[in-house]
Each structure stands twice: as structure tokens, then as C-alpha cells.
Specification:
Strand order of the largest sheet: 5-3-14-8-11
CATH architecture: Sandwich
Number of domains: 1
Helix content: under 10%
Distance between the termini: 30 Å
CATH class: Mainly Beta
Number of strands: 14
Number of helices: 0
CATH topology: Jelly Rolls
Structural class: mainly beta
Strand content: 35-45%
Order of helices and strands: EEEEEEEEEEEEEE
Shape: elongated
Length: 166
């Protein structure tokens, strides 16, 4: 059996912290964003993007805080997580995730596979959450949008995060 020869090892992309065997990927695309408004955003119409204008972190700057979209830097599997705190007075509150401006759904565009919350008037305000792995191509965009008219959500309690799995 012969030895494997490596011409170059890029140590800035994979790191073993202090010889402990723990391997980190400090340049892995990842973000956690939220809306900086400490108030309700009311009567959002169907198709409107949910505003995420503040980043806790944005490794690689692949989430655009002005367009509210994530752009995949490479083809791969990505994990996304969403929490939207919705108001009870709107009746139907629904949101969906879109890839390249098309809601990720099955045969019925009104029922997204990643998103959708319906609650009746008179119920308590609460957080709607969702989490999915999505296969993306390089340059694909991902955003969160309202699926019905009259969506009401609270800014600082609404967040979106994601990262490249591999």
C-alpha cells in the first residue's frame, strides 16, 4: 500500500481546536437574522417578504439585509430555521419559504411545504416555527414571505437562520 501525498492543506477552512479532536469550520456559510422593530408589522399582504434587517451573525455575508434574501454561495444541503411571532387579531396568519422567488410547495401553491400557520381570531399571540433541510444550487436565493393578506408579526420576536450542512 502506498502513501497518499497531499500537495496543499488549507488550514483556514478546517481547524482542530487545541488537539482535542473537535473540528470546526469557521468559514461555513451561516446566518442568524431578525427584524429590529420592537413593534408589530401589521396587515402584510400576500407575497410580501418578511423583513429581516439585523444580523446577530452573517458568516460570509450571504444574507442580504436590504433584500431580506439568502444567496447560496455553493451547491449543497442547507438547514433553515424560522420563528415568526404572529398577532391573534388578523384571523389567518400564514408564511412560506421561497426558493428563487417561488414558494417551496407541492402541487397546491396555497399550501407551502415549509411554512404556513393558520390561527383564528381570539386565540393568543404565539410563535410559529419551522425547520427544514433544502437542497440548493449555487446562486439560489431563499426568503420568507406572507402567504395571505393581513399577516401581523412582531419584529424582534421574528427570526430566520440557516447554514450550509455540506
Amino acid at each position: 500500500m502506498s502513501d497518499i501525498k497531499v500537495a496543499e492543506v488549507k488550514t483556514d477552512t478546517i481547524k482542530d481546536q487545541s488537539g482535542t479532536g473537535i473540528v470546526t469550520f469557521p468559514n461555513r456559510p451561516a446566518f442568524f437574522v431578525y427584524n429590529s422593530s420592537n413593534d408589530w408589522t401589521n396587515n402584510v399582504t400576500a407575497g410580501t417578504l418578511i423583513i429581516f434587517n439585523t444580523a446577530k451573525f452573517n458568516v460570509g455575508s450571504h444574507f442580504d439585509l436590504s433584500t431580506y434574501k439568502f444567496t447560496a454561495p455553493v451547491t449543497g444541503l442547507y438547514q433553515f430555521n424560522i420563528r415568526i411571532y404572529v398577532n391573534n387579531d388578523a384571523g389567518t396568519n400564514a408564511w412560506g419559504v421561497a426558493i428563487n422567488n417561488t414558494v417551496y410547495n407541492h402541487s397546491n401553491a396555497n399550501y407551502p411545504l415549509f411554512g404556513d400557520l393558520v390561527q383564528g381570531v381570539g386565540t393568543y399571540d404565539f410563535g410559529s416555527t419551522g425547520s427544514h433541510c433544502l437542497q440548493l444550487n449555487a446562486s439560489d436565493t431563499v426568503h420568507v414571505q406572507s402567504m395571505h393578506n393581513n399577516l401581523d408579526y412582531f419584529g424582534t420576536m421574528t427570526s430566520f437562520s440557516g447554514y450550509l450542512i455540506g
